[in-house]
Amino acid sequence: HIWLDPVLAGEIVRRLADELSLLVPGAKTRFHERAEAYRRQLRELDRDFRDAIEGCVRRRVVTFHGAFGYLFARYDLEVAGVIEPFPGVEPSAAYLRQLVDLMRQLKLNVIFAEPHLPDRPARIIAQEIGGRVERLDPCETLLPDAPEATYLQRQRTNLATLKRVLCDNAP
Predict the structure, then answer these.
(1) What is the pTM of this model?
(2) Residue 29, Cβ neighbours under 10 Å: how many?
(3) Of 44, 72, 80, 125, which residue is least crowded by CB atoms under 10 Å?
(4) 32-46: b or e for each residue (b if 16 or more CB lie within 10 Å)?
């Protein structure tokens, strides 16, 4: 999920333009111009993440799985726990109990689910801790309710969610 970090996504875009230029040398200028225009938007997204998250008091989050490691590392957020530590393997009841205990200990009242995955485990945990479920998008599949949503739009939604949960509702 390296693409969730806007800085690393910019590097991917640059490398793609370089590789496409080797395949279609006649379009090299076009590839690089378009890549640079997109990279400017990614740099703006990075600045927006930095500005929005910088002053947040809360820095710990619990997610459905470890998809957000690169994004969180970029902005100094800590993954305190995940519902599904191994992709596709349902967690045990004992593991979920430990996660609930950890969230209580850390006074975390929000758990992040993903729009394309079942949120039942997250809802159960949220009920146990007296909290709520929010959504973060790993930008890895089309969204059924918004298949036309771009990476930038989806990341801005992630940013708004993180800001609202970590900053705006600070204790």
Answers:
(1) 0.91
(2) 9
(3) 44
(4) beebeebbeebeebb
